[in-house]
Amino acid sequence: MVVPRFVRVVPDDPNTVPLSMVETRGRAWALVWPGMGAHLRSFHRFSLEPGGRTIPLRHPMEAVYYVIAGTVEVDDLDLEVRRQVITGGMILVDPGTRYRIGAGPEGSEVVGGPSPADPLLYATNEAD
Fold it and tell me: How do 62-76 and 22-32 pair as beta strands?
């Protein structure tokens, strides 16, 4: 089987593929995901208002996030440990770890996701 090779430029458009990954005060959307043909990588954007946070997350693969702006508090819900991450910092989540990302007092912008892509994150979006 021949696999086509090409470069795509992906716009950062919060209206493209919304994700149900934010519990309160913010939104998340897919930038790179299986619905566009990506299978070995996912990349999401979280825009969290002050006090906003994701739902508790857990993936069978590792996940990596980069803090574009603001500060976040990342909770390791298995070990009950909270760490603060400032702008420019990265978060590495081991496979199977239950975690949550919350915005600092000024809100936050975060990008990243599990690799390879976690199909459970897109179950409701595949049919769109």
Answer: unpaired
